[in-house]
Amino acid sequence: MAVRCEHCGRKACYYRLASGELICANCLENSVYKQVRKYLTLYNVVKRGQRAAYLVRYDKVSQCVAMLKVLLRIAKVLDLRLVALVPEHALDNVSKTLRILRSEGCKLVPYSLLYDPKALSLVEYVKLNEIILRDIIEKHELDVAFSPLFRDELSLLAFMGIATAAKHVFSEAFPLKKVRSLLIARPFYFVTLFDATALSYLHGLDELMDLSIPYSLEPHEKLITEQFYEITHGSHELLYSTRKSVEALQTYVISNATRCSMCLAYSNTDPCPSCTDLLRKSQQGLYRTSE
């Protein structure tokens, strides 16, 4: 006997770890869509007709492409125009998918990192992605940039920031960054990485997993990450219900901090320690785009 979706009664294909639901592909996609719409509405991130940038991450190619499809569905409703940065090495391998994305009105811009991503720590990798998005907002005069960080990753950054007493890490778990006219949003603030991975499989994007180039966790990051997932594994409450209290704590912790001019995070120094390390590692710049 087939296991049925708890929402619509169709055949279930996915067990949602954070909530314990058995769910079908259609209901999963609709749920993720609603989570992204909830974020955009709750934080008043975009207005109808605006232009937005989106980054396909080196370490999460398939998940980011799957979520780009969700954003494009929302873009049609809100009349948004999207510019998506895609790793240059992935373009040939996702040509069919990208043709579909182009046909849906998404402009694609290839980009390359100028050194091995495996040389980066988790925090450095997050900073680098948002430096790229900040530059793209300014270069193309866009209204907002969408940074593809997921609920569990944002919770991990908050946990890591508390554990290391680092403002420039802790503040990365905020739902958005806004400095003057620059706005970097985290549209997947309510979406877990597990759900994004499931969507990528359901869209037939699992072969893109091989194109992902992961960052390298530093020893302290590895220890904290293991502790974090041990605590939150399968916990819907810890991933979602503490959101407001964490935001209140973040506001208190960064009250006397300045901003890093590179990644726009709160920090005691400018650049923040992670951006300083990034600059030290690269003598040729951080990235390039091919337009």
Which class best fits the helix and strand makeup? Answer: alpha/beta
The total count of helices amounts to 11
Number of domains: 1
Strand content: 5-15%
Describe the structure.
- The protein has 291 residues and is an alpha/beta fold.
- The protein has a single domain, classed as HUPs (Rossmann fold), CATH 3.40.50.
- Helices cover 45% and strands 15% of the residues.
- The strands form three sheets. A seven-stranded mixed beta sheet has the order 7-8-6-3-4-5-11, with helices on both faces. It has a two-stranded antiparallel ribbon with strand order 1-2.
- Strand 3, helix 2 and strand 4 (81-87) form a beta-alpha-beta unit.
- The longest helix is centred in the middle third of the chain and has 19 residues, at 122-140.
- It is globular and about 60 Å long.
- The N and C termini lie far apart (53 Å).
Task: Describe the structure using short key phrases.
291 residues, 11 helices, 15% strand, Rossmann fold, globular, two-stranded antiparallel sheet, 7-stranded mixed sheet, alpha/beta
